[in-house]
Design brief:
Layout lengths: L8 E6 L8 H18 L3 E4 L14 H11 L4 E8 L5 H15 L3 E6 L4 H6 L7 H16 L22 E4 L3 H10 L2 E4 L10 H15 L8 E9 L3 H21 L9 H7 L3 E3 L1 H8 L10 E5 L7 H15 L23
Parallel strand pairs: 1-2, 1-9, 2-3, 3-4, 4-5, 5-6, 6-7, 7-8, 7-9
Helix pairs in contact: 1-2, 1-11, 2-3, 3-5, 6-7, 8-9, 10-11
GO cellular component, one term: cytosol
Organism: Actinacidiphila glaucinigra
Keywords: Monooxygenase, Oxidoreductase
Length: 348
């Protein structure tokens, strides 16, 4: 185990998608990615919440999933990027977060955001036009609940008691104003893998957001920026494209239908729009060294979404990220995993 301080923490994010209509297989594979990331030394593992299914599924109940992941992992931190906060009762959410944090030995990070899907808001009886206001209101309650303050009624406090969440709450932002707002509230900043609605490269769009966040930060602790990026290493570019190309192209065309991307994109432009880093590890390292936001990020959060690569290819990509990509960029493994827990709950 090295004692050298890493330049950033290394994370992995999954949207819990599969290629067939088999949620048992999809959830099992996602859990195996967490186990593999834990063994490879990844610092953080994240799941995204989606109430409306994506192509191949999506995870509606992230804290239930993460509770199970606590039993299969030993050191990796577990979080959401993001929990759709306006659709949650913040007191009940705080209870779930506190429970998973207790089960995991204090390994929880919680990222929150407003979401965007009108159908999800309608299903939960919430007004999508009030998503920013609801996010702010619910985040205030969530913060106080996790800090052990009275919430909901005089004398009521969330249990189990959750301490030390002041530096473990993350907020997604999609503008300079949103990033500054996150800083003003003391949240860590989460930046998405792609800047939707912009023609410029994602990192060129997002670097001013990161800079605005850092300028607005006025807390005594170090500000933290989590940078989500689509990273898929393989033997070579052709092998990588065989695993991710069709999925990325289809996803870009779906995004174009909603106006986030221009219509009629070819594969190369789809990959550019998703700010994709793919191919041989050396190619990815060279490209990430040019990434404009990474120099100010404290956390690099890698993901394969919108691609759904074969499970073996996904496991191999995680290995390459941890052994051949991230170390070349300054990441160092900081701890060895403990004994691996026996599988429970999810059938093989």
């Amino acid at each position: 185990m090295t004692t050298e301080s890493p330049r950033f923490r290394l994370g992995f994010l999954t949207h819990v998608q599969g290629r067939d209509d088999d949620p048992v297989r999809t959830y099992r594979n996602a859990l195996e990615l967490f186990v593999a990331a834990d063994e490879l030394g990844f610092d953080t593992g994240w799941v995204a919440q989606h109430h409306v299914p994506l192509g191949g599924g999506g995870l509606a109940s992230p804290w239930t999933f993460l509770a199970h992941a606590t039993a299969r992992t030993t050191r990796i931190r577990l979080g959401t990027a993001v929990t759709i906060l306006p659709l949650e009762d913040p007191i009940r959410l705080a209870e779930d977060v506190a429970t998973v944090d207790t089960l995991s030995g204090g390994r929880v990070e919680i990222g929150v955001g407003s979401g965007y899907n009108a159908l999800e808001y309608a299903a939960f009886g919430r007004d999508v036009d009030r998503k920013r206001e609801l996010t702010s209101e619910h985040l205030d309650v969530l913060r106080r609940a996790l800090a052990g303050a009275e919430v909901g009624a005089p004398g009521f406090r969330v249990q189990p008691a959750a301490g030390g969440f002041g530096d473990r709450i993350w907020q997604g932002a999609f503008s300079t104003q949103g990033a500054a707002y996150a800083a003003a509230g003391g949240s860590n900043l989460l930046l998405n893998r792609a800047a939707y609605g912009f023609d410029s490269p994602t990192d060129a769009v997002q670097r001013p957001w990161a800079d605005a966040y850092l300028r607005a930060w006025d807390r005594p602790r170090r500000p933290r920026i989590g940078l989500s990026r689509f990273v898929f290493p393989a033997k070579d570019r052709r092998t990588a494209l065989r695993q991710i190309g069709d999925d990325v192209h289809r996803a870009a065309l779906r995004m174009a239908e909603g106006g986030a991307f221009p219509k009629g994109l070819d594969l190369d432009e789809a990959l550019r729009r998703f700010h994709s880093f793919h191919g041989h590890p050396e190619e990815i390292v060279a490209a990430l060294r040019q990434e404009r936001v990474l120099p100010v990020a404290t956390d690099l959060i890698t993901q394969f979404n919108p691609a759904v690569p074969d499970h073996d290819a996904a496991l191999r990509a995680l290995e390459l990220i941890a052994t051949e990509v991230a170390p070349e960029l300054g990441w160092r493994r900081t701890a060895e995993p403990g004994p691996r827990p026996e599988p429970t709950g999810v059938p093989a």
